[in-house]
Write a structure and sequence with these properties.
It contains one helix and eleven strands. With 192 residues, the chain is mostly beta strands. The protein has a domain of 114 residues: Fimbrial-type adhesion domain (Immunoglobulin-like), CATH 2.60.40.1090. Strands 1, 2, 3, 7, 8 and 10 form a six-stranded mixed sheet that branches. A three-stranded antiparallel sheet has the order 9-4-11, with no helix packed on it. A two-stranded antiparallel ribbon has the order 5-6. The chain is globular and about 55 Å long. Keywords: Fimbrium, Signal. Belongs to the fimbrial protein family. This is Fimbrial protein.
Length: 192
Amino acid sequence: MKKLTLVALTAFAAISSFTAEAKDGQFHFRGQITTAPCGVIVPNGGYVQMNEWATSELKQDTATTLQGRSVPFSIQLVDCDTSVTTKTVTTTFTGPLAGINGAFAVSSLGNDSQFGGDNRQAGQPATATGVGLKLFNADNTALNAGAASTAVTFTPQTTLSFQAAYVYTGASASAATAGYADSDVDFTLNYL
């Protein structure tokens, strides 16, 4: 009987040694719980790649409708509770301003891991001057900083679409100088 017990204990010890836990990595979960009727997904982690623009492409910051080149971006509303009384939403964008005509200020943030790391080039000015970032509604009307967007009726899955364009903020596009034109813009959803 002692021999059988010893064999059983040896087998148990051998099995136990193979089930030891090892820490091989870690996940970081981040989120927020709200009382809003919709969940929110911001595609690409909120990064919008504007690429390079020539100063000749810049339109005046007083434009009330989209003219020329732009870059689309969106906010996705998911799992919306359509049983709520209010089924419309507007979006308000806020951030540092470039002048008085509703465009956002630009700077040289430069180190963007989302777009391949530090993309600044030697000899180029750190920040473009005389330039701002202007946003537009899906219908191409200007969406000035701090103003509510066009109201959208939401369904269980709704995409809020917008456009972004660089604009000149000085007397003319030729007065704008080359450089980086990065901008961080916050948004707030307003359920009406």
